[in-house]
Write a structure and sequence with these properties.
Blueprint lengths: L4 E10 L2 E11 L4 E5 L6 H9 L6 E6 L8 H5 L2 E4 L11 H11 L4 H10 L15 H13 L5 E5 L7 H17 L3 E6 L2 H7 L2 E6 L2 E7 H6 L5 E7 L5 H5 L7 E4 L4 E6 L2 H14 L4 E8 L2 H9 L6
Parallel strand pairs: 3-7, 3-8, 5-6, 6-7
Antiparallel strand pairs: 1-2, 1-4, 8-9, 10-12, 10-13, 11-12
Helix pairs in contact: 3-4, 5-6
C-alpha cells in the first residue's frame, strides 16, 4: 500500500547548522508515528517540512502522492496541525475561538460543539482563552487541529511543560481518535512514555538523522535482551573483579554512577546465575533493580546520553 506520507532523502540547513541530514521515512494510513529524540534532534524542522511550512534544501516530500508545489490548497485541507506553542486571542472564548477557525473550513456550529465535547472543554466553552490553564490551552489547540476531520494530524511536542494529569488528558483524546478515526498521526516528543503509550511506530532521531526505527517490540527486543538488571555494590572497588572475570553475560559498568547493568532475556533463569557468579567472587550487592528495557535505554546504548539530557 502506498504510504500516506513519503519523505525521501530530505536535507535542511540554517546558516551553518545542518538540522536534517538526509532523512527518509514512510507513514501509512491510520498509523500513529512518534519522532522521538532530545531537543535539537531535528524533529521540529522535519515536521515543518512535512507541513509545508519549510522547504527542503534537498529531497522530496509527498502527501498522499502529491508534493506541496502546486497542491498546497488541497493538502492544507487534509492536514490538522498543532505547533509547539499556540497563541490565542485573549478575549475570545473557547467557543468563539473554535467558531473562528471553523469558518476557515466552512464548518458550522455542530462541528464546533462536537470538538468541544471531544477535547473535554464543555465546562470552559464560555471561558476566555487568557483564563485557560496550560493543559486546557493545549486541548483547545488540539481541537482546532481536529476541526476539519484531518486525514493527517501533525503534533509538535503537544505535552511539553504540562503536568502529568494534563498530559494524560491529551493522551486520552488521542487514544479515542486512534480507536474511532482513520487519522494518521506524526507526533514529535522527547518523552519516552508518550511514544510508547500512543504510537504504533517509533523513529528515534539524533543530530538530524534517524538512528533506529520500528515498532516498539522491534526496538526493545531487537538484540534479544528486553530486560535489564541494574545493581550497585557494597564495595564499588570490586567492580574491576567482575569486569575482569568471565561472566555469563556482559556487564556494563558506569563508574561515575557506581552502577552496573546487565541486559537479559529471562529474569527467572539468569538472575540465579548472576547471584551464583557474585557468590563465587565474594561480591555483595548494595542494591538491585529488575525492569523492562525502555526506549531511553535503546537511545542511551546508541548515543551515550539519555533522552532528557
Amino acid at each position: 500500500m502506498e504510504p500516506i506520507i513519503k519523505v525521501k532523502e530530505v536535507h535542511k540547513s540554517f546558516k551553518n547548522v545542518q538540522a536534517v541530514k538526509g532523512i527518509s521515512l514512510n507513514v501509512h494510513a491510520g498509523q500513529f508515528t512518534a519522532l522521538l529524540g532530545p531537543n535539537g534532534a531535528g524533529k521540529t524542522t522535519l515536521v515543518e517540512m512535512i507541513e509545508g511550512i519549510q522547504k527542503p534544501d534537498q529531497g522530496e516530500i509527498f502527501i498522499m502522492g502529491k508534493s506541496w508545489k502546486g497542491h498546497a490548497d488541497e493538502l492544507h485541507r487534509l492536514i490538522g496541525l498543532s505547533l509547539q506553542e499556540t497563541h490565542f486571542i485573549d478575549k475570545l472564548t473557547v467557543r468563539e475561538t473554535l467558531r473562528l477557525f471553523a469558518a476557515f473550513y466552512d464548518l458550522g456550529r455542530k462541528r464546533v460543539a462536537e470538538i468541544i465535547d471531544l477535547v473535554g472543554l464543555a465546562e470552559k466553552r464560555d471561558a476566555y482563552a487568557v483564563n485557560l490553564s496550560g493543559g486546557q490551552r493545549q486541548r483547545l489547540a488540539l481541537g482546532i487541529a481536529l476541526l476539519n476531520n484531518p486525514k493527517i494530524l501533525l503534533l509538535d511536542e503537544p505535552t511539553t511543560g504540562l503536568d502529568p494529569n494534563a498530559r494524560r488528558e491529551i493522551w486520552n483524546i488521542l487514544l479515542q481518535l486512534k480507536e474511532h478515526a482513520r487519522t494518521s498521526l506524526i507526533l514529535t516528543t522527547h518523552y519516552m512514555e508518550e511514544a510508547e503509550h500512543l504510537c504504533d511506530y517509533v523513529i528515534i532521531m539524533h543530530q538530524g538523522r534517524i538512528l533506529k526505527e520500528g515498532t516498539l517490540e522491534q526496538l526493545l527486543n531487537g538484540d534479544g535482551a528486553e530486560k535489564i538488571i541494574e545493581f550497585t555494590l557494597e564495595k564499588p572497588n570490586q567492580a574491576a573483579d567482575l569486569l575482569g572475570s568471565r561472566v555469563p553475560f556482559p556487564i556494563q559498568w558506569e563508574p561515575d554512577l557506581g552502577r552496573g547493568t546487565l541486559l537479559v532475556s529471562h529474569f527467572e533463569t539468569q538472575i540465579p546465575s548472576f547471584f551464583d557468579f557474585l557468590k563465587q567472587k565474594n561480591v555483595r550487592l548494595k542494591n538491585l533493580e529488575c525492569r523492562r528495557k525502555t526506549l531511553d535505554d535503546v537511545f542511551t546504548s546508541m548515543t551515550g546520553r539519555r533522552l532528557d539530557e
